[in-house]
Specification:
about 450 residues, mainly beta, 12-stranded antiparallel β-barrel, 3-stranded antiparallel sheet, 4 helices, about 50% strand, disordered N terminus
């Protein structure tokens, strides 16, 4: 109840402050937060300068995370911009008549259109706190990787120094949340054809923490006779403005940021080519524009086009519907360079419980094809017990190390809600959305979605 009241108050606030919100953008460079987080790791300058985390490794780690998470975060389903009421113009009476007594759903489309020369406008709000990505729990340090020492002494000149075999083990924990407010408008060009636009205003908050441990696989601290931190080649500094030391070889770094602004705007056209009670069949086209800032994780930096088929039918108070489509994506932007094509599908059922109340359920699916992802991995870090001149005596040391990959990712959402008509052509909707798969980016809690729309 507390979260629902927060949603209601937020929607009312957005309606009052909307012009200011749409013109405001706060840039925090969230897409580069992981890279910035790791770049502040420093060690004491002892017998040599400590060289960890080269630019290529930083780019690879942060790039793998952004390529996987960024597109999914920026393309969460915005819901249907078509509104819940539909009308048909009666040539004999010169009046608009309701096409259906069943109100439309929040996420799926019906073949019904808003009606010739009719407008529908509305606003929706939802918030999400993401708990996992595939097999990783984001908040508990599941994302583990090793930071290698740079090659500072080429073998051809000095041999491979033992100190270069040391690594810094890192366990990454991330808190990631979004609040999305969507303005949507639909205009009926004819009784069979309407156009819509959905303008999302997105706020993203992200906090990342990396718990670090120096694994002295080869440097002199690995030798018992040289025990004592003063003899260690690699050690964390006693004081640092960015890094908090927690033990002899352990420390952590943390960084957070937020960003807000207009996300990727969606423009839609829908044409009904076959009539039936409750709709019939329609064809639609969505164009998602690159209006959101990809460096802030509120846009993809690229455009995509979705072609979809809609079917709906009505029997008395019951109205089933389905959507089936395919999304063609371009190459993305500067940071999110690869956008995946998608297979999109949804189906649902609406029931007019009373003339003023419709209850509905939707299942919304996305299959992201060959999408960037990351998986747990194990890598062999060789432990040498011989001299610097004899590197043949190595023993295997297997450590967890993040691996970037591509895979088909199935994201499935279930939504259940109610739409209420308090007066005139006003509709108030409340849906509860839940993730039904463990692929991709996921909020494991129930997500309330509040919407208000009006037809005129």
């Amino acid at each position: 109840m507390k979260r629902t009241l927060h949603l209601v108050s937020t929607c009312l606030t957005v309606l009052v402050l909307l012009p200011t919100l749409l013109s405001a953008q706060q840039r925090g460079g969230l897409a580069l937060l992981l890279r910035d987080l790791l770049s502040v790791i420093e060690l004491d300058n002892t017998t040599h300068e400590a060289h960890f985390i080269g630019g290529e490794q930083l780019d690879a780690l942060s790039g793998a995370f952004i390529a996987a998470v960024g597109p999914q975060l920026a393309t969460v389903p915005l819901g249907s911009p078509g509104g819940g009421l539909s009308f048909t113009f009666d040539e004999r009476t010169g009046a608009f008549l309701r096409s259906s007594e069943v109100f439309g759903s929040i996420y799926s489309e019906r073949a019904l259109t808003v009606g010739r020369s009719k407008w529908n406008a509305g606003i929706s709000f939802q918030s999400a706190e993401y708990d996992s990505f595939g097999d990783f729990q984001l908040g508990n340090g599941d994302i583990r990787f090793q930071l290698r020492h740079q090659d500072v002494a080429p073998i051809a000149e000095f041999g491979n120094p033992e100190l270069e075999e040391d690594v810094i083990g890192a366990a990454l924990a991330i808190e990631l949340s979004t609040e999305t407010t969507v303005l949507f408008f639909t205009y009926g060009i004819s009784d069979k054809f309407d156009v819509s636009v959905a303008v999302p205003f997105v706020s993203v908050d992200m906090v990342a923490r990396a718990d670090l441990e120096i694994l002295r696989l080869e440097s002199e601290c690995a030798n018992p006779e040289l025990a004592g931190e003063e003899n260690c080649t690699h050690r964390f500094p006693l004081s640092s403005p960015d890094l908090v030391r927690t033990g002899d070889a352990t420390a952590f770094v943390a960084r957070g940021g937020s960003a807000s602004g207009i996300g990727d705007i969606v423009v839609r056209g829908k044409y009904r080519f076959r009539d039936a009670p409750g709709g019939g069949m329609a064809f639609g086209v969505d164009l998602r524009l690159a209006t959101g800032e990809e460096e802030e994780l509120i846009g993809t930096g690229g455009t995509s086009t979705r072609l979809f088929l809609v079917g709906s039918r009505e029997w008395d108070k019951l109205s089933p519907h389905f959507n089936l489509g395919y999304t063609f994506s371009n190459a993305g932007g500067d940071l999110i360079t690869a956008l995946s094509d998608e297979i999109n599908y949804s189906f649902g059922m609406l029931y007019a419980a009373t003339p003023r109340v419709t209850i509905g359920a939707d299942f919304v699916g996305r299959q992201l094809l060959d999408a960037p992802s990351f998986v747990p991995g194990i890598e062999n870090f060789n432990l040498n017990q011989g001299s610097p001149d004899d590197r043949s005596g190595g023993l295997p040391v297997f450590l967890p190390n993040l691996q970037a990959t591509t895979d088909d990712i199935d994201v499935l959402l279930g939504a259940f809600g109610v739409r209420f008509n308090p007066t005139g052509n006003l509709l108030v909707s409340l849906n509860i959305v839940s993730s039904l798969s463990n692929d991709g980016l996921e909020d494991e809690d129930l997500i309330p979605v509040l919407a208000v729309d009006y037809s005129f």
